[in-house]
Amino acid sequence: MNTLKELEEHIGDCHRCPLGDTRTTLVFGVGRHDADVMFIGEAPGRNEDLKGEPFVGAAGRLLDELLASIGLHRSDVYIANILKCRPPGNRDPQPVEIETCTPFLREQVRLIDPKVIVTLGNFATRFVLKTSAGITGLRGSIHSAGRFTVLPIFHPAAALYDITKQDVLFADFALLGEFLAAHDRGQQEPVQGELFGA
Ligand code: URA
Hints:
The protein has helices at about 5-10, 20, 45-50, 60-70, 95-110, 120-130, 135-140, 155-160, 165-185; strands at about 30, 35-40, 80, 115-120, 145, 150-155. By secondary structure, it is of the alpha/beta class. The chain binds uracil.
């Protein structure tokens, strides 16, 4: 596959796993095809399932605010999920669903080739970093997965229930902004900042 459009056509009206029978709309992903930043969430919820776009509900509104805090709009980045179809009742993704669906996500990452992948919450972080560690211990510092730079952060939905996580999310976005600015200046590693560890 050479383009996201070809990949989307290849996925088609997917019924490779049982979620194909229960979803309304397959949520492929949205944003710039050459984005520097790629966000990976968990799975579409009810609003996303109806609209066919990731993060269009309350968590999405917070994500938009977080993006705006570093001068970005969702059209500047790319947003996708571990699963492209909504699990019934928003239950957790099942291993077989992740296994079936994530080859397409990998292909999206390969085609977009972002400078940084931001994983939202436990499912995306565990999948991308191949770890069983929790998001609380991993967030806010830079990791790598293969040739990709990865910044794990809390899932915005978690911050809707626990308001204290909102400040942490804004702080982690500030670090993302620093990383992008340093990258634009051609610095491989900024001189300081929690983002790059000690
Ligand atoms: N939560 C996610 O993880 N992804 C969405 O697209 C919406 C809510």
